[in-house]
From TrEMBL:
Gene Ontology biological process: daunorubicin transport; doxorubicin transport; response to antibiotic
Name under which the protein is recorded: ABC-type xenobiotic transporter
UniProt cross-references to Pfam families, sorted A to Z: ABC_tran
Organism field: Streptomyces cinnamoneus
Superkingdom of origin organism: Bacteria
Enzyme class: translocase
Listed InterPro entries: AAA+_ATPase (IPR003593), ABC_transporter-like_ATP-bd (IPR003439), ABC_transporter-like_CS (IPR017871), ABC_transporter_ATP-binding (IPR050763), DrrA (IPR005894), P-loop_NTPase (IPR027417)
Amino acid sequence: MTAIQATGLRKSYGEKTVLDGIDLHIPEGTVFALLGANGAGKTTTVQILSTLLPADAGALRVAGHDVAHDPDGVRAAIGVTGQFAAVDNLLTAEENLLLMADLHRLPRREGRRRATGLLHRFELAEAAGKPAGAFSGGMRRKLDLAMTLMGDPRVLFLDEPTTGLDPRSRRTVWDIVRGLVADDGVTVLLTTQYLEEADRLADRIAVLDHGRIVAEGTAGELKGRMPGGHIRLRFGDPGQLACAAALFDGIGSPDTEALTLRIPGDGTVPTLRAVLDALEGASVEAQTLTLHTPDLDDVFLALTGRSGPQAAGVR
Ligand code: ATP
């Protein structure tokens, strides 16, 4: 079954077109990443699909409900976690969760049961009785996500869920998201500026640029569209670089400022050996050699003409 379906989604603010005909097809129980730089239209897409903002045009269905005609049906089936946590600082972690239970009109006992389960799952049990104002950024983000899950959503919108988190907290959030999909069959639409996040988490990725989807596919498919990797040689002086550039004339791309030569190559041992043998045969000495295999950053660069929205912080 399709969890999220959008056809021809458009949105403008006055003269400014923010979404210029977006199509999405997200099967149930999968993670879909909308990858884009600041201002690409990611948050607007999430706000429209989660009924917070009306679209100008487009047919939209979420969890089997039409977004325009049955917004209440959509709201009952979804959870949304935005870039700014909805946590109440004066309440404890547990009280924040119980407040959500009340908002969802859960019976008291069921509310407590879910809250306890989520506090354990998110490793917040020890902090359950502490005011959220004292929490670290990572803890707040986890609590925010836990609050969203009190409503037991089938479709979860995560708007930049790990922006500003340290690498360890980011991994924890990733693990939680993976668990929700694998164990509970939840569908996740996540927006991110982190190429690595999309790579690690998403079944499919759409690259959003200026309100248009410029590419869509699995991480492997997107990387597969790229030409192969390259070998990068750095030299000690311009003379050595010039000699090397002459050796690989027509193949290599020299950079006279960085004193580097870029040679297309797949990084296999025979290719490397051929390059090193050629250098040695001509008595040219390279200072360093680095291998580069295509990653999502290259995909982003190739598609948008700019380098990735943000370098991924975790390796
Ligand atoms: P970010 O990563 O910064 O959140 P984003 O991809 O989520 O970026 P959006 O927040 O969807 O981008 O914004 C897309 C564009 O729409 C931006 O250029 C923004 O300035 C513009 N925009 C958003 N909301 C409004 C508004 N209420 N009025 C006018 N322009 C708006």
